[in-house]
Prior knowledge:
alpha+beta, 11 helices
Amino acid sequence: MIELQREHNVSFLYEAAVCGSIPIIRNLEEYYDNDLLQSICGIVNGSTNYILTKIREENLDYQQALLQAQQLGFAEADPALDVEGKDAVNKLTILLAHAHGIITDPNEILHRGITQIQNTDANIALEKNVQIKLIAQAKKLANNKIAACVLPQFVTMESQLYNVRNEFNGVVIESSLSDKQFLYGKGAGRYPTSSAVLSDISALRYNYSYEYRKVNNPGNKNELSSDFYLKLYVSFNAWSDIDLTDFDFTEEIYCQRGRQYLTGVIHYEKLKNADWLSDNNVSVIVCPDGIIENIDTLKLKSKSLQFPGVEVLV
């Protein structure tokens, strides 16, 4: 894409490609053109957010919520790109280029959608007053390393993403100087998308183009890392569905509503290569801790997701 623009000496704008009506790309290009960004974390797919909202608020099952999203034009007839997380990871690769100067293939980033989430998972989230959202995120670690993934995640009331409902998108950008800023707007639907397209067409009239300042900066040393951890909630039908030895440690193991559950910490590479990750019987949701660089500090913290009243085996 960048090479084609250079080869033909033209400007190619694609604001509508990420978050619909939210001007996230231009903000990263213009406002955050320095190298002080710490993290980007957001809901970048309106279709999955609509489905998850309906599952929670109207107690619909996955297929009912999907059908409703399709009828309203928020999901395609073949929804695989949305519900399997492929659309979100494609958008994350675009954000990585503008935020951190990293050009990468979407297949290099661990991504999973919402198809394996069970109604029992949604009920637990409701009981614990957390929301399940499909989250695309990139976090800066030490030594210019960037951790990135797209996975369902429990979002607490303290997060600005908690109240992002239906087809809306929301992105939290954190930098060293400005702390956290939140961008919010409709991420699916013809009108929000067309507003971004019209804005790009208007910008082309005065020869606006993306400068890719971080991509083109010879001093930029940012690169993707696979050396980090994730704290997960995992539910499954039988213990044979997963491999407990993949986890560095588990905080809770329990049984409820005919399903087995655990919360534990796993290395990114272990999760990415786990056979059970693609099992339709296994639901994987990131706990509110999100991306973790050092698990030693996590062991000293209190648990982020508690299940009182359930027999726990640790």
